[in-house]
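Cross-check.
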Amino acid sequence: MSINRVVLTGNLTKDAELKQTPGGMAIVKIRLAVNDRRKNSTSGQWEDSPNFIDVTMFGARGEAVSRFLSKGKQIAVEGKLRWREWESQAGEKRSAIEVVADDIELLGGRGDAPASPRTVSSAPADAPAEDFSDGEDIPF
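Predicted model, tokenized:
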């Protein structure tokens, strides 16, 4: 069994690029800057070292979120890694690893107030709430 999951947070390096396949499926491409902290061997100071990650999202979800993906925006991405290979016009073999996103969440960005966290509930909205006010029999 293999597990291929990745979760990243970072800032967009440019506005989202939205394209369509000949069949009409939306493809959104973004580049995410994810900082890594490293200690400079000469100065002894900690420094941010950026990693630039290509991210692709397919379908209606990508098309919907693409309107909000602008340069500098802070986002979280959840998806899987995909390796691809191609040949350049000069005949050289090239390869790259990218993230194919299943979910993109807006976190805020430069000059933006952070987005309020999403609340996730597994109970339907019309389900009655259980009362544990006496502190007895708490189910955890």
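The radius of gyration is 21 Å. The beta strands are 6-12, 17-20, 26-39, 46-58, 73-87, 93-109. Passed to J.P. for a second look.
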